[in-house]
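Hi R.,

Quick one: here's the Molybdate/tungstate import ATP-binding protein WtpC sequence you asked about.
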Amino acid sequence: DERRGEGEPPIAVELEGVGKRYDGAVAVEDVDLAIREGEFFTLVGPSGCGKTTTLRLIAGFEEPTAGTVRFGGRDVSGVPPEGRNVGVVFQNYALFPHMTVGENVGYGLRFSDPPGDVSRAERVRELLDLVDLPGTEERDPESLSGGQKQRVSMARALAPGPDLLLLDEPMSALDARLRERLRVQVREIQRELGITTVYVTHDQEEALSVSDRVAVMRGGTPEQVAEPRTVYRRPASRFVAEFVGDNNVFEGTVAGEPGDGENGDEDGDQEGPVSVPVDVDGATLRVAVGGNDRGADGDPGIGDRIAFCVRPQHLRVGRTENGLEATVESAEFLGETTRIHLAWGDRELLVRTEDPLSGTVVVGFDPADAHVIDVDGG
Ligand code: ATP
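And here's the predicted structure, written out as tokens:
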């Protein structure tokens, strides 16, 4: 998904080999990212993976200890934040309580005049309209809800007409319902302005729902950079498979050639996706290898170690193909579905069903719903 076709917008922000160390502690390392103009790009990952540091390096609050940050192809080393034409929104709003809402938004214009031919007051009004808080200039920020405060802080960040909007966990102080509303609003504002946006969150669902592309980070380095659908359907690693949504990851040994023992064509030479048998803890499971799995490095060969994943909604109760006999351990009712924890030997399996389950069940999956994530560690 790093293809760059003819019609792609130009690169707005590029990080090449970027690293940041603090007294020997590595915060980020080997970060290569190319964010396109107009793109909503999200850095997502667990606590401490380097998301905030990466954002701060882009903003210019920190200078890298290795590598280069470029804006529109220009090295921005040594350029302070106020010289980078970026708008930044923080988790804790950072609104001034002794100023009105309008004064807070106007504060965004402290380094520059309003863009276009408008007065500061008009610009403040425009921005409050944009974030759907018209007429709130005289309000005390303390009288606003958390979601409204965050929209004021977006208005302030956008007031000078920045080229780049940076948001660091802007929703994390809000309750779940407000977060869902605000993320839709943030996405609408971003689309309306067409502004290149880099967004930091630890919430994978939020990342998938708002972004054009996401970088899943681990230990200071992006592990996969792709569109949300690709990250979900074709995770590049076990870490991504388990971080993005629920997943069942299996590891085993390839026990036959692609197509061996498959219905129909027996010579293992047919076109399109085929499956291989994989021994996993005494069970033989068939796993599709096709498309990108059959790349330059070839198909998995007999004896190769292989890891693959199957989403809980693809483990079907009562299905005998790739059937595993498992025992129901616990269930969580989630409204639309129930997430059931099964024990298969000493492994846990997750399935999703509409009906409650108990006792011993057989769950199976279509080989095509298994995604190979790793062959012999490669
Ligand atoms: P969180 O979601 O918890 O904020 P994060 O993914 O944003 O995590 P960072 O804040 O970028 O992660 O931190 C990455 C690593 O760098 C962490 O181990 C952190 O302790 C370390 N780190 C960050 N800032 C500093 C600093 N100023 N001095 C020393 N270590 C730092």
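The chain has two domains: 11-237, 248-375.

Cheers,
M.
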